[in-house]
Amino acid sequence: MREITYARAIREALAQEMRRDPNVFCMGEDIALYGGAFKVTEGLLDEFGPERVRNTPISEGSITGVATGAAMLGMRPVLELMFCDFLALAADQILNHAAKFRHVYGQQVRVPLTIRTPSGGGRGYGPTHSQSLETWFMRVPGLKIACPASSADAKGLLTTAIRDDNPVLFIENKMLYSLKGDVPEGEHLVPFGKAAILRRGDDLTIAAYSRMSVESLKAASILAGEGISAEVIDLRTLCPLDVDTVVASAQRTGRLLIVEEGTITCGLGAELGFRVFERIWDYLECPPRRLACPDVPIPCNTKLEAAILPSAVKIVDEARAMMEAG
Amino acid sequence: MYRDMLLLRFFEERALRVFLEGAVVGTCHAGIGQEAIPVGIFSVLRPDDYAVSTHRGHGHMLAKGADPRRVMAELFGRRDGYAGGRGGSQHMACFEVGFLGSNGITGGGIPIATGAALACKMKRNGRVVVSFLGDGASNQGTFHESLNMAAIWKLPVIYACENNLYAMSSPWSEMAAVKDVAERGAAYGIPAEVVDGNDVLAVRESTARAAARARSGEGPTLIEFKTYRFCGHSRSDTMPYRTREEEAEWLIRCPILRFSERLRSLGILDDSSEAKLRSDAMRIVADAEEFARNSPEPDPESVAEGLFA
Q: Do A103 and B86 touch (CB under 8 A)?
């Protein structure tokens, strides 16, 4: 075990899987010599060559389809989309093709496709380079969604994604790329659909994913100083969604706060909050609360951006309000 | 080949009839009049080559070697259909014969075919992929993006454009400023040709050239097959957008009629052999319909099965 960054953990998973299986290959815009916009694939070209670390034209819709077609014939492509905002261009191929084929074609085919893409704001990139669109895709049957919050999970969930025989949307986070953490050196797999309890607590449950899990941990430390004991659950994958772990926790604490970086309407909070509520409403001290981005585009200006993105400070405020409410 | 063309014609006529009778619900896109294209193409390709189809794919699939019984059963939405009733007319696949699926999104299959060709190239298996598309799909972004990628990577793919002059109701001449879809090949450095899509031998020859090019590693070819659909776009289409005179002109150029005349002039076909081929094809279609009608309905309990591998 040694400390490495989230970006390097992803690169390590890619390299290990490419060494293990000749059908695994990477494709995407500027991923080869340049190493990708966030340098995640840097150095892979030297080891694996241009056929398996394949630069593509700027054609998000069709490169997603090309990766899907290759996957249908037994390749295991790992496609990088430079920003998750570009998922909008790829949406038809994900929704109407990759995620549907197995079911619609009567189980004749497998589509072992991984789409890696960074979500999230915090860098002042503005309205088309800062969004968190993964919850849109929770409504696509046939698609799995993984969203690591740590270096170890980045490696472990990506390895699982690449070996999965289904299309997986693998959501990275721009602010986490430089975050360091302990990561096993050898083969490391983290199963899908199993949330991680990052911190134990008794007064309320905070459920989050990706960078918001990190912010929730910071918030829990602050809350502990005020005598509030928060349990922090990192969901790890949005599909499958580990509702049971959240239910068990909220049943015990009596309070549930769901934190996400995407816009609030029809988001994770709406879905998970209701699923928990319908099962254990009579155990809850107060209604579940949601902390998310309001329904507005993300501005470039740092102060405007900070005004709408959830953060540790805002999580603390929400938690305090919940404790006062009941 | 002649028998296959008859099979495709009779199958589509039967498919339209059962839809009009109401025995089958939903929609149905038939390819009556366009039979020479898939039959000519697959007559010259290898069985282990691949094809990705469009929303008008029954004929493509049958010409690739799919079982008419199971295609018809899918139209009926039955358990024995290729998609077990989930796909219907425009979402069928038969991987065992290399038919990688028809597709309800216009132009949606073009990048899929291109990716299949990338897999063939990376696996060095010497196989070729046919990407069927219509004149309408050549206006989708996926067409342009995919041709560009296939060209820069020299992928073994044949873009087979069936230009039947109308994208649903919209005439090609109003939807594009170029005369031929084939002109668009030049924009991507792809050799392209215009071929009489109602001449099965011309289809065959042009496909052979494109396949040889693909297999030798030289990359993709765009072939525009000029053709005409004798039926409506879908079962609800009354064809107000084209004249009966135009239809009559194309009926004279019927690919089956022309091939029959050609075979007769060469002394290969006569009245009795033609009658036999027709009755053979008709029997296969009648058998397919009977099979489909007798196939059980899918179990509603099974609807969510197989979502994930």
A: yes
What are the residues whose beta carbons fall under 8 Å from the beta carbon of B120, sequence distance 6 or more?
Answer: A73, B50, B126, B127, B128, B129, B155, B156
Question: What's the topology of domain B2-290?
Answer: Rossmann fold (3.40.50)
Assess whether pLDDT exceeds 80 at residue B148.
yes
Q: Kindly report, as residue ranges, where domains of CATH 3.40.50.920 are found in chain A.
A: 196-325
Average pLDDT over chain B, rounded to an integer: 95
Instruction: Calculate how close chain A gets to B24, using CA atoms only, in Å.
Output: 18
Of A129, A231, A305, A318, which residue is the catalytic one? A129
Q: What is the mean pLDDT of residues A160-165?
A: 98
Interface predicted TM-score of the whole assembly (ipTM), two decimals: 0.95
Angle, helix B68-75 to helix B2-21, in steps of 10 degrees: 20
- Residues near B234 by beta carbon (within 8 Å), at least 6 away in sequence: B27, B28, B29
Question: What gap in Å lies between CA A238 and CA A246, rounded to an integer?
Answer: 13
- Token duo for residue B111: 């990048």
Domain spanning A196-325, CATH architecture: 3-Layer(aba) Sandwich (3.40)
Question: Considering only CB atoms, which chain B residues are within 8 Å of A104?
Answer: 83, 86-87, 91
Residue in A closest to B151 by C-alpha: A57
Nearest of B63, B71, B66 to residue B4 by alpha carbon: B63
Catalytic residue among A60, A260, A305, A318: A60
* β pairing state of A53-55 and A24-28: parallel
For A70, which of B91, B110, B119 is closest by C-beta distance?
B119
pLDDT (tens digit, 9 = 90+) per residue, B19-74? 888 888 888 888 999 999 999 999 999 999 999 999 999 999 999 999 999 999 99
Residue A43 has pLDDT above 80, yes or no: yes
CB contact under 8 A, B91 and A72: no
